[in-house]
Write a structure and sequence with these properties.
alpha/beta, Beta-Lactamase, Rossmann fold
Length: 360
């Protein structure tokens, strides 16, 4: 048992999402979004380094010492998996660990709208799950892949950095590939994937032009592609994909994306005020013919009104999802206001001046 495993057990017992360990400071847990210090001594750089290196693969240590950053996965059987990041900072070494639960929750257990589980049954195309860091994108994506695993008879290939949720093959065959361990890059894995007979490809993160381009190509050649992006809403997601390409290619990319895209699910995570825990507000864009035309004609600014009128297709705006949570008294008015898009709708629920004065 590694020395640091005790902190991981504490993290699990306290329901923390992240563990921060930084030289010359006490360990810190992020619990329901808030940082809480652990009652433990401050760790010196040498002591912390020895503790961290104990769980780090040798090739990752070498990479860290060369670059000052490294990502990898670590698992404690029967407890959880952890997404690990080591970094170098002013006072020495630092590390952040994100807990990935061993049990994969279903769409119903997560309280997701019915349309989300239906995305797992699409024959082909691209489905994007977006949101800021720590918004639960991986959890939602894992639930969708789990639905496909239980109900389809296909080959699912996941490409991640590092591997997070581990799915056991059920009706489907699932192969997990980790960037840096099993493949050189997302791009290399996607190029290889087209020769590996997958039906469903899950891309942990679309970080660059090459990955986005290859993911769209896979979607256009008959595969169902799930991927994540760090964007705040559906409109910005579409714009981000197009804008990453050179200006002279953007017209063609709009046409390709309009054909490839099936749905965008953009989520924001909230601390609950009714019970201990967190809940997500989801913005859902379904690529109907009207949506495809707006993307193709460079009118993404009209997507918001299309989502407002497309409820019969399962669409909803982020503000409508937040309002539902607020009216059910699951979240606080301040959180609702600060995370909304059209803030004027939420002003009447506030008892005091908004904390974000720049939005007034």
């Amino acid at each position: 048992m590694a020395q640091i495993d005790g902190f991981f057990k504490l993290m699990n017992d306290e329901g923390a999402s992240d563990l921060h360990m930084v030289a010359e400071q006490q360990p810190i847990l992020r619990i329901l979004g808030d940082m809480e210090r652990v009652k433990f001594k401050k760790l010196g750089d040498d002591e912390l380094r020895a503790m961290l290196y104990e769980i780090c693969p040798e090739e990752k240590i070498k990479g860290f010492e060369e670059t000052g950053d490294v990502d990898f996965g670590y698992e404690i059987p029967g407890l959880a998996r952890y997404r690990c990041n080591f970094f170098r900072q002013k006072y020495g070494m630092g590390a952040v660990f994100r807990e990935i639960p061993s049990d994969i929750l279903t769409c119903d257990q997560l309280g997701l709208p019915k349309i989300i589980s239906r995305l797992a049954h699409l024959p082909k195309g691209m489905v994007l799950v977006t949101g800021p860091t720590g918004s639960g994108k991986s959890t939602t994506l894992a639930a969708i892949v789990d639905e496909a695993n239980k109900t389809r008879k296909d080959h699912i290939l996941t490409i991640e950095d590092p591997i997070e949720f581990v799915h056991k093959s059920q009706q489907c065959i699932i192969n997990h590939r980790e960037v840096g361990t099993h493949t050189k890059s997302f791009g290399a894995a996607l190029r290889g994937a087209l020769r590996e007979d997958p039906d469903i490809i899950m891309v942990g993160e679309m970080r660059d032009l090459e990955t986005i381009s290859l993911a769209m190509e896979a979607a256009m050649t008959g595969h169902l592609v799930f991927a994540t992006l760090h964007t705040l809403n559906a409109m910005k997601t579409v714009d981000r994909i197009i804008e990453i390409f050179p200006a002279n290619q953007q017209g063609q990319v709009r046409s390709t994306l309009s054909d490839a895209l099936k749905a965008v699910v953009s989520q924001t995570l909230f601390k609950r005020v009714d019970v201990r825990g967190r809940c997500a507000a989801l913005e859902i864009l379904i690529a109907t013919p009207a949506v495809r035309n707006l993307i193709r004609d460079s009118k993404t600014f009209q997507l918001l009104s299309t989502m407002q009128t497309g409820k019969k297709y399962g669409m909803q705006t982020l503000d409508d999802a937040i309002m539902q949570l607020l009216l059910k008294k699951k979240i606080s008015p301040d959180d609702a206001y600060s995370n909304s898009i059209e803030k004027s709708k939420f002003l009447k629920f506030l008892k005091k001046e908004p904390t974000d004065f720049t939005e007034v």
